Amino acid sequence: MTYLHGKVICGGTALGTAYVFHRNAGQVKECKTACPADEQHRLENAVEAVKEELTGCAQQAKSDTAKEIFEIHRMMLEDDDVLDFLHNAVENDGLTAQKAVFQAEQYFSQLFRDTPDDYMIARIDDIRDVCGRLTAYLSDEKYADKPHEPFILAANELLPADLMRFGAENMKGIVLGSGSVYSHASIMIKEMGIPALICENINEIKTGMSVLLDADGGTAYLEPDEETVRRFSCFKQSAVSNPFEGLPCKIYVNIANPSEVSGELLKKCDGIGLFRTEYLYFGRTDPPGEDEQFAIYKEILEKADGKNVTVRTFDTGSDKAAECLPLEKEENPALGFRGLRVYSLYPEVFKTQLRALLRAAVYGNLRIMYPMVTSCSETEEIRRIILQTAHELSEQGIPYKIPLQGAMIETPAAALLSGKLAQTVDFFSVGTNDLVQYTLALDRQSGRLDSFNDKSYEAVTALIKTAAENARKNGIEIGICGELASQPELTGKWLEAGIDYLSVSPAALKK
Ligand code: PEP
Ligand code: MG
After folding, report:
1. 153, 175, 313, 339: least buried by Cβ within 10 Å?
2. With a 6 A CB cut-off, is 508 part of the ligand 1 pocket?
3. Is 276 in the pocket of ligand 1 (CB under 6 A)?
4. pLDDT in tens, 206-228
5. Model pTM score
6. Dihedral angle of Cα 233, 192, 239, 199, to the nearest 10 degrees
7. What number does the ligand 1 atom closest to the CA of 434 have?
């Protein structure tokens, strides 16, 4: 038995068979080959095997969209430019098949990125996916599209869209090789309540190996002995109390996937404080339509049975790229088109979401809020669009209600302007993940900057206090929905700052 230590993304314990997922082909050990003919043969076999695998995936796909994605991926492996590149890299440059795939991924991603064509930019994820499958095959790990048995996922890099692809059903634990506990993928993992760690040396984990994950203790045991397994199965049964119970403020939960909402979860809290609707837009070629969204929001409101449901309008862009809403390449995407800035590029998509929300508002206590606010003109403009949308629904004789509207306080500008901003909205919700990133100039995706993070959150607390004071003066509510709300040791600080509610990951309530 060996073990790896790491940083905790989400606590809990899990035992299962490892499944190694290669998001990128960057970890190639051998670059040159003495036998190009052998490598060429391996490459051809890999291409054929992956094509066959993709044909199978397309046949089993449950929706036309998924089928289309698998077919596009298979077609990439029939494309002359892709095949020529791979073969030349092996035959003329003497590279191993794996290195050739790695270079193809780099080359075509850059090529697609450099085109002014949104369609081609959206193909970057496709080439990465296809190359990931080839790499998995070439590294002698038979690629199963996704395991059908309970498994522990090991991956060097993971994006939110990958998590959607694996789903929570069989994924019992996750070991990541890189990233930060504040990345969107990590937040999503917490919301799914899956025990997870970020560890170095995850290359020691091989597909098929038994892994016991003690995420509470920050350790992953590889091929654990019977005694260790027995010790942890005893622990699992000991219930720990919910640290947010009995606090003098409301406790909401954050969700990303409608299936996370259950009567049991809603019993433990005062409602939903953040529904990250961008997850509805991932992994599909067209954005969700009005009726599809209306049905989702209505169902959640009905389940909430009068409790508040706070829906954030879609916050795509940066690391939350949605294939169906492609964006041009940016040097600094976290400072570029994300959050409400994307609405100016896709006004009709935004309007569709607003129509669905206004229609659903009739069925419960819906509140909506906007991401990445930096000025009052932005919230005023959205209010104008809301009124226009309401007018259109009324003209069409469709029942609707205008919900309460909130601004996310996740930029220093929003906090500093909160006195004026409070006059344009009905509530504030502090997004500490981005507020920390933009206040301390600290990339939330990077795990390497941890030592530069001020764990006393002095500057961020000052901004939150300003926003809370302005909320109080203007008689509006303020809460925190970023990850810092889920840390029980910080609760006292937020209550002292004048916060009315905390919105935490469902996993935080299970503790
Ligand atoms: C935040 O920034 O704290 C937040 C809640 O939004 P997200 O993590 O989705 O960017
Ligand atoms: Mg945010």
Report:
1. 313
2. no
3. yes
4. 888 999 999 988 999 999 998 88
5. 0.68
6. 50
7. 2
